[in-house]
Design goal:
42% strand; alpha+beta; two-stranded antiparallel sheet; 166 residues; 10 strands; 3 helices; Pnp Oxidase, Chain A
Length: 166
């Protein structure tokens, strides 16, 4: 049941008089590499292509920075056609699609030669909750090992620095 909410990462949800503000940027930034979303890109044949992403940092209310494998089908799709939808399903029934356009910012990232930094300009956010189910938690994840933790932390620190955050 889609409903357009606005054109920024801060959106109001709920019935009139019982609305609450959901700050998607804060959700991403306060949960480094913990919010796993699904990024949909346009494939070479015009069909959809999806992949999970978690290296996401909000530079501001209209801009997301993502760390992505640079030699992936997703990155190839983005280089050809930057249109995307980032689908998030998180606790407290936060089920939203963030539509926008992505462009490359840094290839490779300093944190890893296998990664590229991409910028997403948000065009609009849509509500995708179900009238029948309430999402009570998102995808749960943890690092596989200390090396993976160090990699994730280094990539997220680079996203934060690219946004100009301390």
């Amino acid at each position: 049941m889609s409903k357009m909410l606005g054109d920024s990462l801060q959106v109001k949800v709920g019935k009139p008089g019982d609305e609450r503000l959901v700050d998607l940027g804060k959700l991403f930034n306060d949960n480094p590499n913990r919010i796993i979303a699904v990024l949909a890109t346009v494939g070479a044949d015009g069909g959809p292509h999806t992949c999970p992403v978690s290296l996401i940092y909000a530079a501001d209310d209209k801009t997301l920075l993502l760390g992505m494998l640079k030699n992936s089908l997703t990155s190839a799709n983005l280089a050809r056609d930057g249109r995307v939808c980032l689908q998030i399903m998180a606790a407290d029934d936060v089920v939203m699609g963030i539509k926008g356009v992505m462009r490359p910012v840094r290839d490779p990232m300093e944190a890893s030669p296998a990664m590229a930094l991409w910028e997403m300009q948000v065009s609009h956010v849509k509500l995708d909750t179900s009238p029948a189910q309430r999402v009570t938690q998102g995808v749960a994840a943890d690092y596989r090992n200390d090396k993976a933790r160090a990699f994730g932390e280094a990539c997220f620190a680079e996203l934060r620095a690219a946004a100009g955050a301390a």
